[in-house]
Amino acid sequence: MTSTIMLGLFALFMVSGSPIGYAMGLSAAISLFITGEAPLLLLPQLFYTSAADINLLAVPLFILAGALMSESGITDSIIRVSKAFAGHLKGGLAKANIMTNTFMAAISGSAVADAAAVGSIIIPAMKEEGYTPQFAVAVTSCSAMLAPILPPSIIAIVYASQAGLSVGHLFMTGIVPGLLGGVVFFILVHFLATRSGGVVRERVPAKERWMEALRAAPAALLPVLIVGALVSGIATPTETAAIAVAYAMVVAAVRNRFRFLGFYRAVVGAAILSSSVLVVIAGAALFGWVLTRAGAPQFVLSSILQLSSNPYIVMLIVLVALFLMGTVLEPAPALILLLPLLISISTAMDYEPYSFAVAVIMMLVLGSVTPPVGVLAMICANIARIEYSKTFGAVVPFILVWFALAFVVAYFPIVATLLPSLVF
């Protein structure tokens, strides 16, 4: 009864345009108030404890580190070095776009932040060089999907903290799939660039290339610092995030870009984004608690097992369902909402938990470039000043190769787990 009322209220809140975190939290609270099936004093306790996980403290710190690096002008340096090394290739600027997003993914951990930071600079440059705006939007938005896969992925921290997994181990599991994503996009762009308006630039002299690489070196050292601290065991995820913030402040000071106004913008931006993430986590925790109490995960699991008990077929059902869920909900709330069910399925089917986690994140983030939500494509379309609906065709090839890569990770876990197995 409670879960039925809650789902109805949730649909009503979503139709009315309420933020997803509030919609989930309020629908859970109101439904319990109406039915009286549980003491309301449980709600503030659940709300607090779900967001009070020590590992989640890493979320605002990593967001702040990425914001401080952007304020230091490192985004411009990464774009310049990417152009220097890839600009002379076929589809050079599009490939530079992918390289830049890969570097930025290893700094910010946020797809939205990457799409906005990189897109604001490189999309106008691609249009000026003759690329179609649809192609520029597709390359930028789809390349930004690498951020939730590569460390320090914010959504990976959320997954690990809620599922009881090691954050460092999950970070390491995402490295190879994330880099493979960049490689397959690089190859895809090579074949699509010519018909999308790409031109070949003159090769940048070797001396200038290496000078640009030297200027961008601090950005390359940050992900090495993060992974090294976690793998060596000298710091917890939260301590590593704090180290990343300190490193970003030093980089900004050395580059003579450490200004109070920039620091203030970075802190405020990180606080706003972190607050929205934590509100979603807390609201989804209430929503998920009511569903779990009603036995929804067990019901769905038994329904899936009635269709098939074959782990490969169940995996296919899960991946397709995640993709469909990602098209209507943003990755973080969708993940938290589905996590009890996903853990039950993973345990019942004996899936490798870390590669399964990466495959889950890959399928959910795919919805960020897919209608009707498509938040990454929307951001980039606004930058390119074209209608969001006109980008649908351009993103399809990228969606298909990402879909294929997610299936490889899901069905061949060794692709993702080989690197962490050498360390842990």
How much helix, percentage-wise, in residues? over 70%
The helix-and-strand class reads: mainly alpha
Give the low-confidence spans.
Answer: none
DSSP strand content = under 5%
What do the pLDDT scores average to? 83
* Through-space gap between termini: 46 Å
**Count of separate DSSP helical elements:** 20
Describe the structure using short key phrases.
424 residues; mainly alpha
Describe the structure.
With 424 residues, the chain is mainly alpha-helical. It is built from 20 helices and no strands. Helix 8 (133-143) runs antiparallel to helix 18, helix 13 crosses helix 16 and helix 15 (311-326) packs antiparallel against helix 16 (331-349). The protein is globular and about 70 Å long. The chain starts with a helix and ends with a helix. The model has no long low-confidence stretch (mean pLDDT 83).
